Amino acid sequence: MLYLELYDYDIERLLFVDSIKDIYGLLSRKLSFQKLIMLDIKCLGRDIELISIFLDEMISKTIDVISILDGLSIHTETFYLSRLEKTFFLNKVVKSQEEGKKKTYMPINQLNGTAKEKNKKIGAYCRVSSREQVQGYSIDNQKEKIQMYLELFDYEPEKLTFYVDEGKSASSLKRPAMQNMLKDIENDEIDEIIIYKLDRISRSVLDVYYLLNNLLSKDVNLVAILDNLDIKTANGRMVIGILAIFAQWERENTIERTNDGLLRMAREGKYPISTIPFGYKRDKDKYLYIYEKEAAAIRDMFLFAKSGYTFLEISRRIQEKHEYKLSDERVKNIIFNDSYFGEFYYKDFIFYEIVPAIVNKNDALEARKMSGKRNSVYGEGLNHFAFRYKVKCATCGEILICVPTYKREKHYYYYYCKKCKKRINQTKIVEHVLCDMIQILATRSKSQNLEKRMNKIKRLDKKIKQNVQDYIDDNIDNETYKVAMKQYNRQLKEAYAELSLVEIKNGLSWERLSNEERRKIVEETISYMTIDLDKKDIVEIEYEK
């Protein structure tokens, strides 16, 4: 009962059962419960397939499963995490079967080891923020829970030190008591840390992950009571692995937020890159303006290129005339930089009002042509382009490339012919072909309508419920039950997959579809199309058979 008191369970609302079959009986009588607590995994029996099906049932009904002696738990509020935790349960069953009768039950007061707990130096960390103090979240309550845990698992530590941060935020590890504890860990004065809940350490995933890694490197264990976490167990190692993933996500998210800030600058007309291009200066508000002394050299570069000079020759002439020492590679980069005629390409968008034009676009393109080079600055394969690689130019037969642009808080997506230097907006293409695509999909989906798929799912649900009831009533044996459940679950998964595709094809407007769904519809219906870019009209289209 001390375990139940430690985790604040309502003892008056306990239901006691002896087997899996008893639990199915409770569920069949519509008795609901949120947690299933057992002494150890052996309480579920020895049939690993039956246990696997049973745990799937608990997960589907969001019933948490806890094995006290094994230190295992399944948190059903998170689907993928619960599936991973289920494997730990099944691995424990296999290991228990291998050990066979040699395995003896360990008393609960020896769960974390034997005499090792009697000589440990324990650090107990407690924290409460100013807001939590006002809400009555007390340090005394945390201390009481830690003392109960020590009593429950028969700790007799050589030394017990409480590290208490009162009125301190969890935004970082820079707290007096936390820093003292970290110093003691570094000096090998702590063997194990016990906290009431993992969020007492920090709200930052990076902080928690780095602290746990530091503890493992110093061979210091950490136990979070309410989270049922011990970092030296399988569950604990899994949590550290997950934290590593989230730590990486947090790092990448920081980079993404920085990129979002830079893109916001660009949308405001400010230059978002730290290095200022040759020919420009930047004012205190981060707006570019033309620096005329360098701009004169830029204009001569394009003039020399149009005249057929090599990049090395241009470099030498610029040094002679303007006294700027630029390498031939630097000259080449300037000639092939669209920013110099006012088109600034940044993070998959073209901005027209950030970099003032120093040269005329036609002159710049002519300079590139005369230097024998071709430019290919536009991005390919962008997710917003549903018809990518499907659109040809009627004049030259080239596949059109994808060019996103940004103007006045709006995105525009164009298919552009580099040879003819003409383009068409994706919206125009959608207007031409959307009705045809819908008609093709509607024709194909007559035999797989929504009602038919829904009825199939309902029939499978009914069969699953009947199979469970037959098992409870002893009308079928374990093997028959397991085979049937496997078959029904496989069929149910297939039915839901078919239903998802039917929903895409019936009733969802083009605007409500995701980029991936739009691309899927185009792939299913259109082989290719040829467009007259002068008339902005489709002259030929071939649909998928």
Automatic annotation (TrEMBL):
<protein>
    <submittedName>
        <fullName>Putative integrase bacteriophage 370.1</fullName>
    </submittedName>
</protein>
<dbReference type="InterPro" id="IPR038109">
    <property type="entry name" value="DNA_bind_recomb_sf"/>
</dbReference>
<dbReference type="InterPro" id="IPR050639">
    <property type="entry name" value="SSR_resolvase"/>
</dbReference>
<feature type="domain" description="Resolvase/invertase-type recombinase catalytic">
    <location>
        <begin position="121"/>
        <end position="269"/>
    </location>
</feature>
<feature type="domain" description="Recombinase">
    <location>
        <begin position="277"/>
        <end position="377"/>
    </location>
</feature>
<dbReference type="InterPro" id="IPR006119">
    <property type="entry name" value="Resolv_N"/>
</dbReference>
<keyword id="KW-0175">Coiled coil</keyword>
<dbReference type="InterPro" id="IPR036162">
    <property type="entry name" value="Resolvase-like_N_sf"/>
</dbReference>
<dbReference type="GO" id="GO:0000150">
    <property type="term" value="F:DNA strand exchange activity"/>
</dbReference>
<feature type="coiled-coil region">
    <location>
        <begin position="447"/>
        <end position="505"/>
    </location>
</feature>
<dbReference type="GO" id="GO:0003677">
    <property type="term" value="F:DNA binding"/>
</dbReference>
<dbReference type="InterPro" id="IPR011109">
    <property type="entry name" value="DNA_bind_recombinase_dom"/>
</dbReference>
<dbReference type="Pfam" id="PF00239">
    <property type="entry name" value="Resolvase"/>
</dbReference>
